[in-house]
């Protein structure tokens, strides 16, 4: 004899003592199992209870989704195929299989909303389904309010000190001291970061801040959605080789700048790091005139002379040659010579004069003799001619 569904629901509520958010048929198997097994599942609070069918009042097993580390979709682009979710828990990996893609989308939305305490983005749900999801989220927050944040751990010395009051504008960590910390890092908590992004959206949409866990970070961003701006917070865990962005599928990067780069690229460059406005000057002041203006030509620059090693000259030659004397005008310059050379030159000049004189006398004597001979020959020719003429006339 089967029980009435209302009676079954009351018994399950008494056993679990948790509110029911969503239920339906599904297939489940652990990573070590080969085949899926059919169950009737109920999402009560943050726990998934599995029953053999919808008439069973006592659950067969349950999955504590508070231990959920990631939830991945096995076939995201195949609408006609069955949808498989890979749930990574602390104890084991579980696979949930849904034959209907619309039902799979609802299971995904409810599980992630209950775990993250916020409605995930890009959900393909109808407006009525989204409204119902918001009501269950408010109910879950009232039932299980978030734990108060513990005080911030002591920060390293290279990070900026916390602001004196929430209204005061915090100063970013100086990048010159520690270049690995981006300029959008502020030593504020979650509420202060959200307040900064809401008050000054023109400064940017991402703030890197310290996490509540020691030596870790958190990223607060303000994202514009069709329904309006939404605040989101992500945890960034520090490891020896870099940083891990705690998403449904964890992402490992090498630096905090790569963390920002990852979010910028994934949001198609719609997010920008939060940067405080820098003041700019708005007037130009004239420079004062100089006190003294020189109207004289500037002193020419003295070109330094190259240093050259002194030349080594023969002292004997300098001693033999006396300093030259300045020649007088209209006179030939006769090179200076030693006294014995001048003496020899004088003797040579006298001998030359005698030779030239003797040569001249010989030339003149020869010329006179030639002239006398020529005159005598001409006289003889005239005499012979006159005698011939006289003989001719006598013969006639």
Class of secondary structure makeup:
alpha+beta
Q: Into which percentage range does the β-strand content fall?
A: 15-25%
Oligomeric category: single chain
How do the SSEs run, as a string of H and E? HEEEEEEEHHHEEEEEHHH
Which strands sit side by side, in order, in the main sheet? Answer: 4-3-2-1-7-6-5
Top keywords for this entry?
single chain; 396 residues; seven-stranded antiparallel sheet; five-stranded antiparallel sheet; 33% helix
Can you describe this structure?
The strands form two sheets. The chain has a seven-stranded antiparallel β-sheet. Helix 2 runs parallel beside helix 3. It is of the alpha+beta class and 396 residues long. Helices cover 33% and strands 19% of the residues.
Helix-strand layout with pairing:
Blueprint: H1 5-16, E1 20-30, E2 37-44, E3 47-51, E4 61-64, E5 70-73, E6 83-88, E7 93-98, H2 101-116, H3 127-143, H4 190-199, E8 206-210, E9 217-225, E10 228-239, E11 242-245, E12 251-253, H5 256-266, H6 315-320, H7 339-395
Antiparallel strand pairs: 1-2, 1-7, 2-3, 3-4, 5-6, 6-7, 8-9, 9-10, 10-11, 11-12
Helix pairs in contact: 2-3
Please summarize what this structure is.
The chain is an alpha+beta fold. 33% of the residues lie in helices and 19% in strands.
